[in-house]
Design brief:
The complex is a heterodimer of chains A (288) and B (244). Chain A is mainly alpha-helical and 288 residues long. Chain A has helices at residues 2-32, 39-55, 61-84, 92-114, 137-159, 161-171, 173-178, 183-205, 215-230, 236-255, 258-275, and strands at 127-130, 133-136. Chain A has a two-stranded antiparallel sheet. Chain B has one domain (2-230): P-loop containing nucleotide triphosphate hydrolases (Rossmann fold). Chain B has helices at residues 40-48, 70-76, 93-103, 109-115, 134-146, 164-181, 192-198, 223-230; strands at residues 2-9, 17-24, 29-33, 53-60, 63-64, 78-81, 152-156, 184-189, 201-206, 209-214. Chain B is globular, with a radius of gyration of 17 Å. Classes of the chains: A mainly alpha (288), B alpha/beta (244).
Chain lengths: 288, 244
Protein backbone atom coordinates (compact mmCIF):
# COMPACT_ATOMS: atom_id res chain seq x y z
CA UNK A 1 0.00 0.00 0.00
CA UNK A 2 2.76 2.43 1.01
CA UNK A 3 4.55 1.56 -2.18
CA UNK A 4 1.54 2.41 -4.31
CA UNK A 5 1.16 5.79 -2.62
CA UNK A 6 4.84 6.54 -3.12
CA UNK A 7 4.71 5.47 -6.76
CA UNK A 8 1.61 7.61 -7.24
CA UNK A 9 3.37 10.64 -5.76
CA UNK A 10 6.41 9.99 -7.93
CA UNK A 11 4.18 9.89 -11.02
CA UNK A 12 2.67 13.21 -9.97
CA UNK A 13 6.12 14.76 -9.64
CA UNK A 14 7.14 13.49 -13.09
CA UNK A 15 3.98 14.88 -14.65
CA UNK A 16 4.62 18.20 -12.91
CA UNK A 17 8.20 18.40 -14.16
CA UNK A 18 7.08 17.66 -17.70
CA UNK A 19 4.35 20.28 -17.48
CA UNK A 20 6.63 22.93 -15.93
CA UNK A 21 9.27 22.41 -18.58
CA UNK A 22 6.74 22.40 -21.47
CA UNK A 23 4.36 25.27 -20.73
CA UNK A 24 6.61 28.06 -22.01
CA UNK A 25 7.27 26.18 -25.21
CA UNK A 26 3.54 25.47 -25.58
CA UNK A 27 2.60 29.15 -25.18
CA UNK A 28 5.15 30.35 -27.74
CA UNK A 29 4.37 27.59 -30.24
CA UNK A 30 0.63 27.65 -29.66
CA UNK A 31 0.22 31.41 -30.07
CA UNK A 32 3.08 32.39 -32.36
CA UNK A 33 3.85 29.20 -34.31
CA UNK A 34 7.48 29.65 -33.36
CA UNK A 35 9.55 26.62 -32.41
CA UNK A 36 11.80 28.07 -29.74
CA UNK A 37 14.90 25.90 -29.89
CA UNK A 38 16.42 28.05 -27.14
CA UNK A 39 13.64 27.01 -24.75
CA UNK A 40 16.02 24.67 -22.90
CA UNK A 41 18.50 27.51 -22.42
CA UNK A 42 15.78 29.64 -20.86
CA UNK A 43 15.16 26.78 -18.43
CA UNK A 44 18.88 26.86 -17.76
CA UNK A 45 18.94 30.65 -17.26
CA UNK A 46 16.04 30.32 -14.84
CA UNK A 47 17.81 27.59 -12.92
CA UNK A 48 21.05 29.59 -12.73
CA UNK A 49 19.18 32.73 -11.71
CA UNK A 50 17.80 30.81 -8.76
CA UNK A 51 21.09 29.21 -7.72
CA UNK A 52 22.96 32.50 -8.02
CA UNK A 53 20.25 34.33 -6.08
CA UNK A 54 20.49 31.76 -3.29
CA UNK A 55 24.27 31.34 -3.18
CA UNK A 56 25.57 34.83 -3.98
CA UNK A 57 22.73 37.12 -3.01
CA UNK A 58 21.61 34.85 -0.15
CA UNK A 59 17.97 35.33 -0.98
CA UNK A 60 15.46 32.90 0.48
CA UNK A 61 14.78 30.07 -1.97
CA UNK A 62 11.17 31.09 -2.70
CA UNK A 63 12.20 34.61 -3.59
CA UNK A 64 15.10 33.24 -5.64
CA UNK A 65 12.71 31.06 -7.64
CA UNK A 66 10.52 34.09 -8.37
CA UNK A 67 13.56 35.95 -9.74
CA UNK A 68 13.89 33.31 -12.48
CA UNK A 69 10.81 34.23 -14.55
CA UNK A 70 11.56 37.93 -14.20
CA UNK A 71 15.10 37.56 -15.54
CA UNK A 72 14.01 35.16 -18.29
CA UNK A 73 11.05 37.30 -19.30
CA UNK A 74 13.38 40.26 -19.68
CA UNK A 75 15.95 38.27 -21.67
CA UNK A 76 13.11 36.81 -23.74
CA UNK A 77 11.83 40.28 -24.61
CA UNK A 78 15.32 41.30 -25.79
CA UNK A 79 15.61 38.10 -27.84
CA UNK A 80 12.23 38.76 -29.46
CA UNK A 81 13.25 42.27 -30.44
CA UNK A 82 16.66 41.23 -31.78
CA UNK A 83 16.14 37.74 -33.25
CA UNK A 84 12.46 36.93 -33.72
CA UNK A 85 10.83 40.17 -34.85
CA UNK A 86 12.77 40.43 -38.13
CA UNK A 87 11.61 36.92 -39.01
CA UNK A 88 7.82 37.27 -38.71
CA UNK A 89 6.01 36.12 -41.79
CA UNK A 90 8.92 33.91 -42.83
CA UNK A 91 8.99 30.13 -42.81
CA UNK A 92 8.87 28.19 -39.57
CA UNK A 93 12.39 26.91 -40.19
CA UNK A 94 13.83 30.45 -40.12
CA UNK A 95 12.88 31.08 -36.52
CA UNK A 96 13.86 27.51 -35.72
CA UNK A 97 17.39 28.11 -37.01
CA UNK A 98 17.66 31.51 -35.36
CA UNK A 99 16.63 30.16 -31.97
CA UNK A 100 18.89 27.12 -32.44
CA UNK A 101 21.85 29.46 -32.97
CA UNK A 102 20.76 31.41 -29.92
CA UNK A 103 20.64 28.22 -27.89
CA UNK A 104 24.26 27.39 -28.81
CA UNK A 105 25.36 30.93 -27.91
CA UNK A 106 23.57 30.92 -24.57
CA UNK A 107 24.98 27.48 -23.74
CA UNK A 108 28.55 28.60 -24.43
CA UNK A 109 28.10 31.84 -22.51
CA UNK A 110 26.86 29.83 -19.53
CA UNK A 111 29.92 27.57 -19.69
CA UNK A 112 32.19 30.63 -19.78
CA UNK A 113 30.49 32.13 -16.74
CA UNK A 114 29.72 29.09 -14.60
CA UNK A 115 31.96 26.29 -15.87
CA UNK A 116 30.61 22.83 -16.62
CA UNK A 117 29.84 21.68 -13.08
CA UNK A 118 28.97 24.64 -10.88
CA UNK A 119 27.85 24.15 -7.27
CA UNK A 120 24.12 23.76 -6.77
CA UNK A 121 21.67 24.49 -3.99
CA UNK A 122 19.98 22.10 -1.61
CA UNK A 123 16.37 21.00 -1.78
CA UNK A 124 14.23 22.90 0.74
CA UNK A 125 14.14 20.64 3.75
CA UNK A 126 11.20 18.78 5.19
CA UNK A 127 9.70 15.45 4.32
CA UNK A 128 6.88 13.18 5.22
CA UNK A 129 7.16 9.52 6.08
CA UNK A 130 4.92 7.08 4.28
CA UNK A 131 5.51 3.70 5.91
CA UNK A 132 9.10 2.74 5.10
CA UNK A 133 9.48 5.61 2.66
CA UNK A 134 10.15 9.32 2.96
CA UNK A 135 8.95 11.84 0.39
CA UNK A 136 10.27 15.39 0.38
CA UNK A 137 7.76 18.19 0.71
CA UNK A 138 9.33 19.82 -2.29
CA UNK A 139 8.45 16.97 -4.65
CA UNK A 140 4.86 17.27 -3.41
CA UNK A 141 4.95 21.02 -3.91
CA UNK A 142 5.89 20.75 -7.59
CA UNK A 143 2.58 19.25 -8.78
CA UNK A 144 0.67 21.90 -6.85
CA UNK A 145 2.81 24.64 -8.39
CA UNK A 146 2.38 23.19 -11.89
CA UNK A 147 -1.40 23.04 -11.52
CA UNK A 148 -1.63 26.55 -10.09
CA UNK A 149 0.53 27.96 -12.91
CA UNK A 150 -1.60 26.19 -15.55
CA UNK A 151 -4.78 27.50 -13.94
CA UNK A 152 -3.39 31.04 -13.79
CA UNK A 153 -2.43 30.82 -17.45
CA UNK A 154 -5.92 29.65 -18.31
CA UNK A 155 -7.39 32.64 -16.48
CA UNK A 156 -4.89 34.95 -18.16
CA UNK A 157 -5.76 33.77 -21.65
CA UNK A 158 -9.48 33.31 -21.13
CA UNK A 159 -10.41 36.36 -19.09
CA UNK A 160 -7.94 39.18 -19.57
CA UNK A 161 -7.58 41.81 -22.24
CA UNK A 162 -4.10 40.64 -23.17
CA UNK A 163 -5.29 37.03 -23.34
CA UNK A 164 -8.07 37.79 -25.80
CA UNK A 165 -5.84 39.94 -28.00
CA UNK A 166 -3.13 37.25 -27.97
CA UNK A 167 -5.62 34.58 -29.05
CA UNK A 168 -7.06 36.81 -31.76
CA UNK A 169 -3.57 37.66 -33.02
CA UNK A 170 -2.65 33.96 -33.05
CA UNK A 171 -5.79 33.07 -34.97
CA UNK A 172 -5.66 35.74 -37.68
CA UNK A 173 -2.94 38.37 -37.23
CA UNK A 174 -4.05 40.46 -40.23
CA UNK A 175 -7.65 40.68 -39.11
CA UNK A 176 -6.63 41.38 -35.52
CA UNK A 177 -4.39 44.16 -36.72
CA UNK A 178 -7.18 45.77 -38.77
CA UNK A 179 -9.36 45.70 -35.66
CA UNK A 180 -6.74 47.76 -33.86
CA UNK A 181 -4.60 45.07 -32.19
CA UNK A 182 -0.92 46.02 -32.09
CA UNK A 183 0.13 42.50 -33.04
CA UNK A 184 3.86 43.18 -32.64
CA UNK A 185 3.40 44.35 -29.08
CA UNK A 186 1.20 41.37 -28.28
CA UNK A 187 3.79 38.99 -29.75
CA UNK A 188 6.54 40.61 -27.71
CA UNK A 189 4.56 39.99 -24.54
CA UNK A 190 3.72 36.42 -25.58
CA UNK A 191 7.33 35.52 -26.34
CA UNK A 192 8.54 37.09 -23.11
CA UNK A 193 5.82 35.22 -21.23
CA UNK A 194 6.89 31.92 -22.80
CA UNK A 195 10.51 32.57 -21.77
CA UNK A 196 9.42 33.63 -18.28
CA UNK A 197 7.51 30.35 -17.94
CA UNK A 198 10.59 28.40 -19.05
CA UNK A 199 12.58 30.36 -16.47
CA UNK A 200 10.05 29.62 -13.76
CA UNK A 201 10.23 25.93 -14.67
CA UNK A 202 14.01 26.05 -14.44
CA UNK A 203 13.84 27.91 -11.13
CA UNK A 204 11.43 25.41 -9.66
CA UNK A 205 13.59 22.47 -10.80
CA UNK A 206 16.88 23.97 -9.63
CA UNK A 207 16.73 22.63 -6.06
CA UNK A 208 16.11 19.09 -7.37
CA UNK A 209 18.59 18.73 -10.20
CA UNK A 210 22.26 19.38 -10.88
CA UNK A 211 22.18 22.84 -12.45
CA UNK A 212 24.73 23.00 -15.26
CA UNK A 213 24.84 24.79 -18.63
CA UNK A 214 23.44 21.61 -20.22
CA UNK A 215 20.49 21.27 -17.84
CA UNK A 216 18.00 22.58 -20.38
CA UNK A 217 18.98 20.02 -22.97
CA UNK A 218 17.96 17.25 -20.58
CA UNK A 219 14.38 18.47 -20.78
CA UNK A 220 13.93 20.00 -24.18
CA UNK A 221 13.35 16.76 -26.09
CA UNK A 222 10.59 15.67 -23.73
CA UNK A 223 9.12 19.17 -23.76
CA UNK A 224 8.90 19.17 -27.55
CA UNK A 225 7.24 15.74 -27.50
CA UNK A 226 4.74 16.95 -24.93
CA UNK A 227 3.82 20.10 -26.84
CA UNK A 228 3.46 18.26 -30.16
CA UNK A 229 1.45 15.46 -28.57
CA UNK A 230 -0.72 18.01 -26.80
CA UNK A 231 -1.84 19.62 -30.03
CA UNK A 232 -3.48 22.96 -30.75
CA UNK A 233 -5.20 23.52 -27.39
CA UNK A 234 -1.91 24.67 -25.94
CA UNK A 235 -2.87 24.66 -22.25
CA UNK A 236 -5.23 21.74 -21.70
CA UNK A 237 -3.63 19.77 -24.52
CA UNK A 238 -0.19 20.17 -22.96
CA UNK A 239 -1.63 19.30 -19.55
CA UNK A 240 -3.18 16.10 -20.97
CA UNK A 241 0.01 15.17 -22.79
CA UNK A 242 2.05 15.76 -19.62
CA UNK A 243 -0.21 13.48 -17.62
CA UNK A 244 -0.08 10.76 -20.25
CA UNK A 245 3.61 10.92 -21.18
CA UNK A 246 4.86 11.77 -17.68
CA UNK A 247 2.74 9.02 -16.18
CA UNK A 248 3.85 6.33 -18.63
CA UNK A 249 7.54 7.25 -18.51
CA UNK A 250 7.58 7.37 -14.72
CA UNK A 251 5.88 4.01 -14.30
CA UNK A 252 8.18 2.36 -16.83
CA UNK A 253 11.18 4.01 -15.12
CA UNK A 254 10.17 2.52 -11.80
CA UNK A 255 9.60 -0.93 -13.27
CA UNK A 256 12.80 -0.95 -15.30
CA UNK A 257 15.31 1.91 -15.60
CA UNK A 258 15.16 5.66 -16.29
CA UNK A 259 16.40 5.05 -19.81
CA UNK A 260 13.49 2.71 -20.52
CA UNK A 261 11.18 5.31 -19.04
CA UNK A 262 12.43 7.91 -21.48
CA UNK A 263 12.15 5.40 -24.32
CA UNK A 264 8.55 4.69 -23.33
CA UNK A 265 7.83 8.44 -23.43
CA UNK A 266 9.22 8.80 -26.92
CA UNK A 267 7.48 5.67 -28.21
CA UNK A 268 4.15 6.78 -26.76
CA UNK A 269 4.54 10.22 -28.30
CA UNK A 270 5.43 8.79 -31.70
CA UNK A 271 2.51 6.34 -31.67
CA UNK A 272 0.11 9.06 -30.52
CA UNK A 273 1.20 11.54 -33.18
CA UNK A 274 0.89 8.73 -35.72
CA UNK A 275 -2.68 7.99 -34.63
CA UNK A 276 -3.64 11.61 -33.92
CA UNK A 277 -1.55 13.72 -36.31
CA UNK A 278 -2.94 16.92 -34.81
CA UNK A 279 -2.26 15.85 -31.25
CA UNK A 280 -4.52 14.93 -28.36
CA UNK A 281 -6.48 18.18 -28.66
CA UNK A 282 -6.57 18.10 -32.47
CA UNK A 283 -10.29 17.47 -32.62
CA UNK A 284 -11.21 19.72 -29.70
CA UNK A 285 -12.91 22.96 -30.60
CA UNK A 286 -11.21 24.84 -27.78
CA UNK A 287 -8.24 27.11 -28.32
CA UNK A 288 -6.63 26.90 -24.87
CA UNK B 1 -13.66 62.59 -45.20
CA UNK B 2 -11.73 60.15 -47.39
CA UNK B 3 -9.54 61.47 -50.17
CA UNK B 4 -7.58 59.13 -52.37
CA UNK B 5 -5.29 60.70 -54.92
CA UNK B 6 -3.21 59.03 -57.62
CA UNK B 7 -3.12 55.74 -55.72
CA UNK B 8 -0.96 52.87 -56.93
CA UNK B 9 -1.01 49.56 -55.05
CA UNK B 10 -0.59 45.86 -55.61
CA UNK B 11 1.14 42.71 -54.49
CA UNK B 12 4.92 42.61 -54.60
CA UNK B 13 6.09 43.68 -58.03
CA UNK B 14 2.67 43.73 -59.64
CA UNK B 15 0.47 46.80 -59.58
CA UNK B 16 -3.29 46.31 -59.46
CA UNK B 17 -4.46 49.81 -58.58
CA UNK B 18 -3.10 52.32 -61.07
CA UNK B 19 -3.67 55.97 -60.37
CA UNK B 20 -7.01 55.70 -58.60
CA UNK B 21 -8.83 58.83 -57.44
CA UNK B 22 -11.72 58.68 -54.99
CA UNK B 23 -13.54 61.04 -52.68
CA UNK B 24 -16.06 60.15 -50.03
CA UNK B 25 -18.02 62.60 -47.86
CA UNK B 26 -19.20 62.14 -44.29
CA UNK B 27 -22.41 60.13 -44.07
CA UNK B 28 -22.19 59.00 -47.66
CA UNK B 29 -22.46 55.46 -48.99
CA UNK B 30 -20.33 55.01 -52.05
CA UNK B 31 -20.32 51.77 -53.96
CA UNK B 32 -17.66 50.54 -56.32
CA UNK B 33 -18.68 48.05 -58.97
CA UNK B 34 -16.56 46.05 -61.30
CA UNK B 35 -15.75 42.64 -62.61
CA UNK B 36 -14.00 39.98 -60.59
CA UNK B 37 -10.26 40.51 -60.33
CA UNK B 38 -10.41 44.15 -61.31
CA UNK B 39 -8.81 45.24 -58.00
CA UNK B 40 -11.78 46.10 -55.80
CA UNK B 41 -10.54 43.98 -52.93
CA UNK B 42 -7.02 45.31 -53.39
CA UNK B 43 -8.38 48.84 -53.08
CA UNK B 44 -10.23 48.09 -49.87
CA UNK B 45 -7.23 46.28 -48.40
CA UNK B 46 -5.00 49.22 -49.27
CA UNK B 47 -7.41 51.60 -47.56
CA UNK B 48 -7.47 49.33 -44.48
CA UNK B 49 -3.67 49.26 -44.44
CA UNK B 50 -3.22 45.56 -45.17
CA UNK B 51 -1.47 46.36 -48.44
CA UNK B 52 1.06 49.19 -48.71
CA UNK B 53 0.44 51.90 -51.25
CA UNK B 54 3.18 52.00 -53.87
CA UNK B 55 2.47 55.61 -54.75
CA UNK B 56 -0.14 58.29 -54.16
CA UNK B 57 -1.86 59.59 -51.09
CA UNK B 58 -4.68 58.48 -48.83
CA UNK B 59 -6.10 61.12 -46.50
CA UNK B 60 -8.70 60.48 -43.84
CA UNK B 61 -10.34 63.48 -42.18
CA UNK B 62 -7.48 65.65 -43.37
CA UNK B 63 -4.75 63.38 -42.01
CA UNK B 64 -2.32 61.64 -44.32
CA UNK B 65 -2.66 57.92 -43.57
CA UNK B 66 -0.88 56.61 -46.65
CA UNK B 67 1.75 54.87 -44.52
CA UNK B 68 -0.23 54.43 -41.31
CA UNK B 69 -0.37 50.92 -39.81
CA UNK B 70 -3.69 49.04 -39.76
CA UNK B 71 -4.14 49.49 -35.99
CA UNK B 72 -3.61 53.22 -36.32
CA UNK B 73 -6.22 53.45 -39.07
CA UNK B 74 -8.58 51.49 -36.85
CA UNK B 75 -8.01 53.98 -34.03
CA UNK B 76 -8.73 56.86 -36.39
CA UNK B 77 -12.12 55.32 -37.13
CA UNK B 78 -11.78 53.08 -40.17
CA UNK B 79 -13.63 49.78 -39.86
CA UNK B 80 -13.25 46.85 -42.21
CA UNK B 81 -15.44 43.89 -43.06
CA UNK B 82 -13.38 41.64 -45.32
CA UNK B 83 -14.58 39.40 -48.07
CA UNK B 84 -15.01 35.96 -46.58
CA UNK B 85 -15.75 37.53 -43.17
CA UNK B 86 -12.63 36.24 -41.42
CA UNK B 87 -14.37 35.56 -38.17
CA UNK B 88 -12.12 34.31 -35.35
CA UNK B 89 -13.51 30.77 -35.54
CA UNK B 90 -12.21 29.58 -32.18
CA UNK B 91 -13.25 32.68 -30.30
CA UNK B 92 -16.80 32.96 -29.02
CA UNK B 93 -19.19 35.43 -30.62
CA UNK B 94 -18.78 37.74 -27.64
CA UNK B 95 -14.99 37.47 -27.79
CA UNK B 96 -15.08 38.29 -31.50
CA UNK B 97 -16.92 41.48 -30.65
CA UNK B 98 -14.54 42.28 -27.81
CA UNK B 99 -11.32 42.13 -29.82
CA UNK B 100 -11.66 45.59 -31.35
CA UNK B 101 -13.09 47.05 -28.14
CA UNK B 102 -10.21 45.74 -26.02
CA UNK B 103 -7.59 46.57 -28.63
CA UNK B 104 -8.57 50.21 -28.39
CA UNK B 105 -9.31 50.16 -24.65
CA UNK B 106 -12.92 51.18 -25.18
CA UNK B 107 -15.66 50.41 -22.63
CA UNK B 108 -16.99 46.84 -22.77
CA UNK B 109 -20.54 48.25 -22.69
CA UNK B 110 -20.14 48.96 -26.41
CA UNK B 111 -20.65 45.25 -27.05
CA UNK B 112 -24.08 45.34 -25.42
CA UNK B 113 -24.99 48.51 -27.25
CA UNK B 114 -24.03 46.89 -30.54
CA UNK B 115 -26.04 43.79 -29.78
CA UNK B 116 -29.22 45.84 -29.63
CA UNK B 117 -28.93 46.09 -33.39
CA UNK B 118 -28.03 42.43 -33.81
CA UNK B 119 -30.72 40.56 -31.86
CA UNK B 120 -30.02 37.29 -33.68
CA UNK B 121 -26.48 37.21 -32.29
CA UNK B 122 -27.52 37.65 -28.68
CA UNK B 123 -28.54 34.02 -27.99
CA UNK B 124 -25.28 32.86 -29.57
CA UNK B 125 -22.83 34.95 -27.54
CA UNK B 126 -21.14 31.91 -26.02
CA UNK B 127 -21.01 29.90 -29.25
CA UNK B 128 -17.77 29.73 -31.18
CA UNK B 129 -17.61 32.04 -34.19
CA UNK B 130 -16.85 29.07 -36.42
CA UNK B 131 -20.11 27.35 -35.52
CA UNK B 132 -22.28 30.11 -37.01
CA UNK B 133 -23.89 29.90 -40.44
CA UNK B 134 -22.54 32.03 -43.30
CA UNK B 135 -25.21 34.67 -42.85
CA UNK B 136 -24.68 34.84 -39.11
CA UNK B 137 -20.93 35.12 -39.62
CA UNK B 138 -21.51 38.04 -41.96
CA UNK B 139 -23.65 39.71 -39.30
CA UNK B 140 -20.95 39.02 -36.72
CA UNK B 141 -18.26 40.49 -38.98
CA UNK B 142 -20.43 43.56 -39.37
CA UNK B 143 -21.16 43.77 -35.64
CA UNK B 144 -17.45 43.35 -34.89
CA UNK B 145 -16.63 46.30 -37.12
CA UNK B 146 -19.50 48.46 -35.87
CA UNK B 147 -18.88 47.73 -32.17
CA UNK B 148 -16.06 50.26 -32.05
CA UNK B 149 -18.27 52.88 -33.72
CA UNK B 150 -16.17 53.61 -36.79
CA UNK B 151 -16.60 56.72 -38.90
CA UNK B 152 -15.91 54.92 -42.16
CA UNK B 153 -16.78 51.33 -42.88
CA UNK B 154 -15.04 49.43 -45.66
CA UNK B 155 -17.33 46.64 -46.83
CA UNK B 156 -16.03 44.00 -49.22
CA UNK B 157 -18.84 42.07 -50.92
CA UNK B 158 -21.10 41.55 -47.92
CA UNK B 159 -23.71 39.92 -50.17
CA UNK B 160 -21.44 37.07 -51.22
CA UNK B 161 -22.90 33.69 -50.31
CA UNK B 162 -25.64 35.21 -48.17
CA UNK B 163 -29.29 34.15 -48.04
CA UNK B 164 -31.68 36.84 -49.28
CA UNK B 165 -33.25 37.18 -45.82
CA UNK B 166 -29.85 37.81 -44.17
CA UNK B 167 -29.03 40.30 -46.88
CA UNK B 168 -32.18 42.19 -46.04
CA UNK B 169 -31.09 42.30 -42.38
CA UNK B 170 -27.71 43.67 -43.43
CA UNK B 171 -29.35 46.31 -45.59
CA UNK B 172 -31.58 47.47 -42.72
CA UNK B 173 -28.64 47.52 -40.32
CA UNK B 174 -26.43 49.59 -42.55
CA UNK B 175 -29.18 52.11 -43.28
CA UNK B 176 -29.87 52.46 -39.56
CA UNK B 177 -26.18 52.84 -38.74
CA UNK B 178 -25.86 55.52 -41.38
CA UNK B 179 -28.88 57.45 -40.10
CA UNK B 180 -27.92 57.02 -36.45
CA UNK B 181 -24.29 57.98 -36.43
CA UNK B 182 -23.56 59.47 -39.82
CA UNK B 183 -21.50 56.46 -40.74
CA UNK B 184 -19.81 56.63 -44.14
CA UNK B 185 -19.51 53.43 -46.11
CA UNK B 186 -17.33 52.36 -48.99
CA UNK B 187 -19.08 49.34 -50.44
CA UNK B 188 -17.50 47.04 -52.96
CA UNK B 189 -20.15 44.86 -54.56
CA UNK B 190 -21.12 42.62 -57.43
CA UNK B 191 -24.77 42.47 -56.41
CA UNK B 192 -26.17 45.50 -58.23
CA UNK B 193 -29.56 45.39 -56.50
CA UNK B 194 -28.00 45.45 -53.07
CA UNK B 195 -25.48 48.12 -54.02
CA UNK B 196 -28.12 50.22 -55.77
CA UNK B 197 -30.46 50.11 -52.80
CA UNK B 198 -27.77 51.29 -50.38
CA UNK B 199 -25.58 53.66 -52.31
CA UNK B 200 -25.70 57.42 -52.61
CA UNK B 201 -23.16 57.29 -55.40
CA UNK B 202 -21.89 54.47 -57.58
CA UNK B 203 -18.66 54.14 -59.52
CA UNK B 204 -17.43 51.56 -61.95
CA UNK B 205 -13.86 50.42 -61.60
CA UNK B 206 -11.80 49.21 -64.51
CA UNK B 207 -8.11 48.81 -65.25
CA UNK B 208 -7.16 49.64 -61.70
CA UNK B 209 -8.92 52.99 -61.51
CA UNK B 210 -12.36 54.54 -61.32
CA UNK B 211 -13.68 54.48 -64.88
CA UNK B 212 -16.80 56.56 -64.33
CA UNK B 213 -19.74 57.35 -62.14
CA UNK B 214 -23.10 55.73 -62.85
CA UNK B 215 -26.60 56.67 -61.74
CA UNK B 216 -27.10 54.53 -58.65
CA UNK B 217 -30.88 54.63 -58.98
CA UNK B 218 -30.64 52.73 -62.21
CA UNK B 219 -28.73 49.81 -60.75
CA UNK B 220 -31.75 47.93 -59.47
CA UNK B 221 -32.45 44.79 -61.46
CA UNK B 222 -30.89 46.08 -64.60
CA UNK B 223 -29.54 43.22 -66.66
CA UNK B 224 -27.89 45.45 -69.25
CA UNK B 225 -25.90 47.27 -66.61
CA UNK B 226 -24.99 44.00 -65.02
CA UNK B 227 -23.52 42.88 -68.27
CA UNK B 228 -21.75 46.15 -68.82
CA UNK B 229 -20.30 46.71 -65.36
CA UNK B 230 -19.74 43.24 -64.14
CA UNK B 231 -19.13 41.38 -67.33
CA UNK B 232 -21.75 38.83 -66.34
CA UNK B 233 -22.82 36.32 -68.95
CA UNK B 234 -26.05 37.13 -70.71
CA UNK B 235 -27.74 33.99 -69.54
CA UNK B 236 -26.97 34.77 -65.91
CA UNK B 237 -29.74 36.67 -64.21
CA UNK B 238 -29.54 37.53 -60.58
CA UNK B 239 -32.69 36.83 -58.66
CA UNK B 240 -34.11 39.53 -56.45
CA UNK B 241 -31.52 39.64 -53.66
CA UNK B 242 -34.08 40.55 -51.04
CA UNK B 243 -36.38 37.68 -51.98
CA UNK B 244 -39.39 39.92 -52.18
Amino acid sequence: MDEIVVIGLSVLTSVAILLLTSLGLAVVFGLMRIVNMAHGEFLMIGAFTTTVAVRSLELPIWLAILCAPIVCGFVGALVELAFIRPLYGRRLVDTLLATFALSLILYQVAINIFGTAPPGIGTPSGWIEIGRYTVSYYSLFLPVAALVITALLYVLFKFTRYGLLARAAAHNPDMASVLGVEVRRVNLVTFALGCALAGLGGGLLSPMVAVSPGVGQTYIGQAFMTVITGGPAFLLGTLSASVLLGGISNIVSQLFTTLWGLTALLVTAIVLVRLLPNGISGSWSRQL
Amino acid sequence: MLNVTDLFAGYGESTVITGLELELDTGQIVTILGRNGIGKTTLVKTLAGMINAQRGRIAFEGQDITNASPPRRARLGIGYVPQGREIFAKLTVRENLLVGVHARRLPVSLVDETLEYFPTLRPKLKDLGGSLSGGQQQLLALARALAVQPKLLLLDEPSEGIQPSSLDDIYQLLMRAKQRSGLSILLVEQNLDFAGALADRAFVMDHGRIAREVDHTKLLSNADLEHEYLGADDDVTLSDPFGR
